[in-house]
């Protein structure tokens, strides 16, 4: 597997996650990749075609975080995000971004336990659009959202399969009252696929209303399926509601192919190097990677160690990154 520590706290939390995997008794053949802000500053390129070709040959990629410090003028905005993370999601066709949330005791979401499946290869992230007459008073910016029947359908179907596996409901989140074209495609596709899953109770919410329900009764969700941009925003909200973004893990999946696993949080340059970043999102992401690699028992043991630890330590004094890693390893 490939390891991309990346920027800020990325390398710290990734190392702890790998230590935990080792403590779970799984031995991985890892290759580190020096990608992120430093590599860009040094070489002027973010990710080469040969890097992509090599990464494609890995069974899985574990990524810490990418992104320059806020206000860093040496790297144009979006260069690393688009050139590294989004490029990998698109080129590897990682269509399902799976983000599980299990609320920390004492958080406002206490009791909630749900998963967001975010479409990951289309929507507003497709990069459709451009600037015309840039810099003039008559300039025009367009930014389209790409929604294909194939792309929506495979993501929706993934959501139904997950809801069946977890024995929960499936909620579609969109904004079909305003985005009438893409919303129509999503809702019709959802309805068509739902007919194949008569055992799964379904629901639809507009994304603005979902932001209220997410705060007021997050325990009502089972699995949510939504488009790329709504999923990006909703999962930051879900992270905050469920105890903090430091707990939120993700899997960027194309079942059966090279997939990428990463915490939902960013590089957090303000706390990098201080040894205080929460490694639990990276640890849970690594456990999701083990499921993908065919190590479900080790994955389940790590998930259990994390949830037991969280349930017993949420009221205690904050621990360091290394102490949390050690506590999880000891439970294993
Ligand atoms: C995420 C991140 C990324 C996204 C950024 C870093 C491009 O916010 O994984 O949620 O917007 O998808
Ligand atoms: Mn995000």
Question: What multimeric state do the chains show?
Answer: single chain
* Number of beta-strand segments: 12
Helix content: 40-55%
Distinct ligands, ions and cofactors found in the model: 3-isopropylmalic acid, manganese (II) ion
Describe this protein's structure.
It is built from 11 helices and 12 strands. With 332 residues, it is α/β, with parallel strands linked by helices. The protein has a 10-stranded mixed β-sheet, sandwiched between helices. A two-stranded antiparallel sheet has the order 6-7. 3-isopropylmalic acid binds next to α4.
Topology:
Elements: E1 2-6, H1 10-23, E2 31-32, H2 37-43, H3 49-57, E3 60-65, H4 79-91, E4 96-102, E5 113-119, E6 129-132, E7 140-143, H5 149-166, E8 170-174, H6 180-194, E9 202-206, H7 207-216, E10 223-226, H8 228-241, E11 249-253, E12 259-263, H9 280-292, H10 296-313, H11 321-331
Parallel strand pairs: 1-2, 1-3, 3-12, 5-10, 8-9, 8-10
Antiparallel strand pairs: 4-5, 4-11, 6-7, 11-12
Helix pairs in contact: 1-9, 1-11, 5-6, 7-8, 9-10, 10-11
Bound molecules: 3-isopropylmalic acid (IPM) and manganese (II) ion (MN).
């Amino acid at each position: 597997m490939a390891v991309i520590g990346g920027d800020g706290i990325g390398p710290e939390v990734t190392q702890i996650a790998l230590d935990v995997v080792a403590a779970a008794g799984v031995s991985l053949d890892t290759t580190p990749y020096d990608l992120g802000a430093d590599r860009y500053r040094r070489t002027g390129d973010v990710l080469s075609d040969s890097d992509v070709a090599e990464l494609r040959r890995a069974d899985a990629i574990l990524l810490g975080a990418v992104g320059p410090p806020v206000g860093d003028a040496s790297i144009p905005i979006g260069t690393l995000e688009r050139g590294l993370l989004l490029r990998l999601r698109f080129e590897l066709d990682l269509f399902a971004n799976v983000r599980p949330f299990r609320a920390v005791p004492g958080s406002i979401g206490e009791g909630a336990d749900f998963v967001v499946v975010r479409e990951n290869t289309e929507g507003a992230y497709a990069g459709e659009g451009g600037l015309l007459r840039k810099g003039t008073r008559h300039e025009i910016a367009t930014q389209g959202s790409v929604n294909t029947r194939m792309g929506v359908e495979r993501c929706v179907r993934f959501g139904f399969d997950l809801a069946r596996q977890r024995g929960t409901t499936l909620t579609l989140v969109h904004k079909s009252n305003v985005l009438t074209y893409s919303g129509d495609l999503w809702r019709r596709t959802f309805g068509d696929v739902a007919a194949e899953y008569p055992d799964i109770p379904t629901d639809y919410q507009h994304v603005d209303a979902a932001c209220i329900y997410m705060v007021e009764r997050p325990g009502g969700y089972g699995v949510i399926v939504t488009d790329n941009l709504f999923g990006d925003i909703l999962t930051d909200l879900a992270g905050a509601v469920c105890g903090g973004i430091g707990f939120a893990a993700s899997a960027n999946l194309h079942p059966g192919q090279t997939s990428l696993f990463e915490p939902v949080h960013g590089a957090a340059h303000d706390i990098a190097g201080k040894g205080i970043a929460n490694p639990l999102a990276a640890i849970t992401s690594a456990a999701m990677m083990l499921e993908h690699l065919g190590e479900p028992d080790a994955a389940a043991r790590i998930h259990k160690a994390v949830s037991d630890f969280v349930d017993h330590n949420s009221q205690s004094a904050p621990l360091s990154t290394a102490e949390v890693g050690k506590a999880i390893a000891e439970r294993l």
